[in-house]
Write a structure and sequence with these properties.
Helix content is about 45%, strand content about 10%. A 5-stranded parallel beta sheet has the order 2-3-1-4-5, with helices on both faces. Helix 5 packs across helix 13. The longest helix is centred in the C-terminal third of the chain and has 18 residues. The relative contact order is 0.21.
Length: about 290
């Protein structure tokens, strides 16, 4: 590892608009992009703690031919392999190593948080997150599991704190263990309403040079083919369009209506998650860039 190499973790709750940040960072010169390695270990790898998505894994296994020339075998994604052999590997010749991952993947595994990284977090209003997250899970999971409420699905997956509590606990863990004295927090709404200023501040905080080229990119459904991620995750994207909107995008896009969905339009299972999440979201929002 070069003394000048920059290493960054972007931790997220799913559906927090982290992928446009990755698309932007992929415009940097000589960058290595690693996508959701701990998420693979937690939900697809040999050490996954739950069998709730085994049928989905079997379905994805049958579609592996579509990604035969890209990705890595998901069976090698143990937590120790991700930490030691992937994230803490030298990555010789790269100026920047940029990793996106889900904080909920480290439930019970906080000691696996990698050393040598600038740790950053993206947050998004829970009313926006859970509605989108549930829509994605329903596509990925079996009919029986998909019929459960969002609160039940997340608990079944091991996310007892519905994602945001785990997000905040990881933030506090990194500080308390000295892995990052002040992790960076960015707000997804800021990236949509004021993308250049937000990205400039983010780049300064992580130690990379901002350039105008980072504000736009080509629409490309194969954008992840050159990234480090598992074949099974790539197969999932090609089957259900996990990243379709982000890969169809050409830059940071402001929604026509930036307001979070009102509670009256959300189901009881989503409200259960939202009510639990809000205190943790608000604590992190107060610390954003």
């Amino acid at each position: 590892m070069s003394d000048n190499q920059v290493r960054v973790m972007l931790w997220m709750v799913p559906r927090s608009l982290a992928m446009p940040v990755v698309r932007s960072m992929s415009k940097l010169d000589n960058v290595e992009i690693i996508n959701e390695p701990f998420a693979c270990a937690a939900s697809l790898g040999p050490e996954r703690s739950s069998t709730w998505n085994d049928e989905a894994i079997n379905i994805l296994d049958k579609s592996m031919a579509s990604v035969a020339d890209a990705g890595q075998d998901h069976k090698k994604y143990t937590f120790s392999w991700v930490k030691e052999s992937l994230l803490e590997a030298p990555h010789e010749g790269k100026d920047v190593v940029f990793v996106k991952d889900t904080s909920v993947s480290l439930v019970g595994k906080l000691d696996c948080a990698p050393k040598g990284y600038r740790h950053t977090f993206i947050i998004r209003h829970p009313n926006k997150v859970y509605k989108s997250w549930k829509a994605l899970l329903v596509k990925l999971l079996t009919e029986d599991v998909a019929k459960m409420g969002m609160d039940a699905m997340l608990k079944l997956s091991g996310a007892e704190g519905y994602g945001f509590e785990e997000h905040y606990k990881l933030y506090e863990h990194l500080k308390s263990m000295g892995l990052d004295s002040e992790p960076v927090i960015i707000d997804a709404d800021d990236l949509q309403t004021n993308p250049e200023a937000t990205l400039r501040k983010y780049c300064e905080a992580i130690g990379v040079k901002f350039s105008d080229s980072m504000m736009s990119w080509e629409a490309d459904q194969g954008a992840a083919d050159d990234w480090s991620m598992s074949q099974l995750q790539l197969a999932g994207h090609k089957m259900v369009g996990t990243y379709k909107e982000a890969f169809d995008s050409v830059g940071f896009k402001k929604s026509d209506n930036m307001d979070p969905p009102p509670r009256s339009e959300l189901s009881d299972d989503l409200l259960t998650c939202i009510d639990h999440a809000m205190p943790f979201y608000e604590k992190m929002l107060a610390k954003k860039l």
